[in-house]
Amino acid sequence: MRLQLLAGASLASLASLAFAGAVQAQEANAAPVTALEEIIVTGEPAMRNRTDDVVPTLSYDLDYFQRFEPLTAGDALKRVPSVAFLSDVLESDGVRLRGLDSGYTQILINGERVPGAGVDRSFFVDRIPAELIERVEVVRSSSANRSGDAVAGAINIVLRDALSLDGGYVRLGALNWKDSEYGSWGGTYGAVWGGQAGPGRLLLGANIQDRRNPKQKYSQRFDEPNGTLDNTEVQSDVRDGTDYSFNGSYDVDVAGGRLNLSGVFVRTDRYQDEDSIEYVNGVETDANISTVNDNDVDIQTDNLSLNLRYVREMLGGETKFKLGYASIKDEQYEFEGESEYLRSEGTGRPIIPFPDEDRYTLDSTSTDITDEETSLALEHKRDLSNGLTLEFGVQGVKKDRDSNIADTTRIRFNVPNAPAARPAVPAFGPFIAGPGGLSTIEETRIDPYVMLSGENGPAKWEAGLRYETTDTTINANTNQSGDPVIFQQTENDYAFLLPSASLRIKLNDTDRLTFSAARTVRRPNFDRLSPALLEEEVGDSDFVGNPNLQPESAWGADVGFERRLGRRGVVGVNAFYRDITDLIEDVNTGDEGSGGDGTFIYSVDNVGDGQVWGLEFDLSTPLDFIGMETTGVFLNYSWLDSAVDDFMGERRFNSQSEYVFNAGFTHDISTWGAAFGATYRKQGDALSRVVSEEVKTSYGADLEVFIEKKVAENIVIRLTGSNLLDSSKDEVFDKFNTEAEQIDRDYDEYELETESAGPWYQIVARMAF
């Protein structure tokens, strides 16, 4: 309650200033104001930063990505080490740092947590337009002053604030996707201004950009590997929408300290249109059409963050007060219409082929998820004797998550009762939430910490303790009929002591070593906490959540070596290891499922351990040592591996890519005011095994290029091309009805699916003022 009152007071003060700002400002000692020329065109290769952080951190400024004109933070992150995605082609949403599930990676905005709509607590980085970014940091280990839910590490997206820009610029562009004879066109428009406003500094920005992802899918389904081809499916999948963002920040001296008020709003408006035709026996003619399916989803997602930060010298050191509010509201409306043909074969009734119709089915689902977090922190840092620095504080978060996932009454017509024409707007009945469809989750976290740091000759270090407490209350609809709603309430409380330590040793003017160790946690997925019974959720078997799940915890270590190359280049290698305990895995309760004999009720529990390890190499340098100071190259390669035991034996962590590889170059022609470059990316195969299904996912290579020309002192034009190798996503599905059949390899279905998308192009003009 005290958190909410304080939050309300601070949000009122934000409103009184009548502006929206960037998610959060940097510290009072932020970097100097950026020159507009650096935003328009750099004139020299942009390299990875060599940070002064003790915790191993890779830092990349905006100009490292900007020349390829990424649309989102996800597009930018594709170029940094160990970042993998398991998204569709042309999509970069859930970050899988070190190949692990998105829930193992902590996404921070200016060092602060943000809620996501996903059940695994992850935040989709494609919701952040790249135009808001000042830099991106890959934080490989944990510190006591940050939230401990970062088993794989953390991605910190630092947004522009009022101290980072002096002047303004306008960005105008056109995009073209090659999904038709002339392609589909879209636009991208943005403007940012920063400067003095009254006693403080103000930054305001707005950005609108069209998004489109046109893909083609093709599936072959067999009764078993190398068996009989049962059917094929040809599918088009087009995701079309627009992103809107508004941001700003105000920084001002108040009462002997520095006050920053800030916020950002991002709306994702998207429509997904999937159309497919299924053919029996793989014979792709009209006479062999078995189903025609139209599946559309209308999505609107709003992200809002408001923050207040006040920093003041007091009590012999620096005291910091932070108050924040962050929310995500995800609304989706989905309907699926399917026409079936040839159903009557074997029933004694006449076979009805295409274009006549045997049966028509229409389903609709409404999804409304709201996740709100109010955060409060009080922190103090002061210098001690002998070069030591003490930092301590307490951070609190109050989360409220409401989910409403409801279905409408199914509409089904069987011949001869099917109407001759389908209504353009289906007349659905009322939406009714089924088991688990209505739920609320309340979490309260109070996390005190203390950290000591110092420097002694060539060594710089920090060590700390963090104590995270979590009180959770879960309410979920458990009524199988859906009406009336019957809520079951459960509570789950837990606490973890999280030590961490990092050491950096300067060997000489160019070389240094880093050592880090930390304990981290991963909290359970929301859908795994619901006590509602879901029928036929696991093949033919049922599933029920476990509200008493405890978080997974991990002890981890990173050891790295880094060398400076010339004036601006850097090369590094890092080895990491994570020992994860209390893994959350599917378990068989032994109770018979709703499908009768041979089916079961599955749940989840904290069972077993797992290990994750790998080696990460990265190089970023201009080629000035061979006389090519206007040419820059980058290369990074991450080898990733893991081990965990499940009901069938040992496997890797689900969907962990075997490797991630990036390479690229940029070259400036200063006499022409021009530049060009390319980047190449390849991600290794990923395997997943759960009860009833096994999946192997493979991606093709991705190539992007850019050409830029400075046409005036304050104007630059860039042409970029993406997905120039027509990258594909190929999946192999092994499907089974029961766990016993999976162990015996008695297949229900074996499917091969490939998804492909063509290249897309962008031309952008930036003008500074």
Automatic annotation (TrEMBL):
Principal place of residence: membrane
Record-annotated membrane-spanning stretches: none
Database matches in Gene3D superfamilies: TonB-dependent receptor, beta-barrel domain (2.40.170.20), TonB-dependent receptor, plug domain (2.170.130.10)
Region forming the signal peptide: 1-20
Domain named TonB-dependent receptor plug: residues: 64-154
Membrane association type: Multi-pass membrane protein
Sorted UniProt keywords: Cell outer membrane, Membrane, Signal, TonB box, Transmembrane, Transmembrane beta strand, Transport
Subcellular location: Cell outer membrane
Residue ranges, annotated region (Disordered): 212-232
Keyword Transport: yes
Keyword field contains Membrane: yes
InterPro entries: Beta-barrel_TonB (IPR000531), Beta-barrel_TonB_sf (IPR036942), Plug_dom (IPR012910), Plug_dom_sf (IPR037066), TonB-dep_rcpt-like (IPR039426)
PANTHER family for this protein: PLUG DOMAIN-CONTAINING PROTEIN, TONB-DEPENDENT RECEPTOR-LIKE BETA-BARREL DOMAIN-CONTAINING PROTEIN
Record protein name field: TonB-dependent receptor
Taxonomic source organism: Brevundimonas intermedia
